[in-house]
């Protein structure tokens, strides 16, 4: 039995295919796929306990195995009452059945009994996000494999622009290569999907570099995309908190990869923030966070008008020490 979990659909697929290739190299076994959210767990377990008729072994894949988390997910069937049956099966599995459990989350709940049993009795594979170097290598190899060309600095730009998710990265690269096999800066700027996390971190970069002009340009751009002042302030505050946490962890001699894992953020983002940390201190970060909370509170109370907060009050952030 196997358990695969992680948010990156592409990495999960890679891990699943690796397992299938190992246990079923000649594709001779029956394979059935189910969803914990849509199919009866009792039916799945009955199938798992049944001896296959047309092959030596059976493979069952159970997608959406959210029972190892505490997330409240809407389901078509209520399988909670059958989790005790699953725990019993884990203790005495059918030797003629392989089961692959897949859960599309980065964090599972170790407090749950079923999770503890799964971790104890299955082979666990976490679909871990790639490091910065692995991402650049993946992008370079994918483009070359598809007869495209790109300069190294533009590979770095793609890594910076996109979330650390191979499914998204692959789709964006596919889109660019359909337009032109020679990937240029203009091609990326004009055709690559703009992701909110990237744009928010650009604001923090502008703060770190003390670049007021670009900060206001990027802030107004996000407003034009439909984000309210309240939403933008909340996102900006969270990003500054992340920046402060990176400074603290760096002071504790944590490596960029360790920091990225602890904070669950893009390794390249840690690298970019680290380049400008000499302009930023924990004290300055805390003061900016306090100021952002103050602006947010006063907008909600109606003391500050939303339409002027983005300029008059946010400019004050650049005077904070």
UniProtKB/TrEMBL annotation:
GO biological process, one term: DNA-templated DNA replication
EC number(s) per entry: 2.7.7.7
Transcription keyword on record: no
Protein name: DNA polymerase III subunit delta
Highest rank taxon of the organism: Bacteria
Family: Belongs to the DNA polymerase HolA subunit family.
Keywords from the named record: DNA replication, DNA-directed DNA polymerase, Nucleotidyltransferase, Transferase
UniProt xrefs under Pfam families: DNA_pol3_delta, DNA_pol3_delta_C
Source organism (scientific name): Spiroplasma poulsonii
Gene Ontology molecular function: DNA binding; DNA-directed DNA polymerase activity
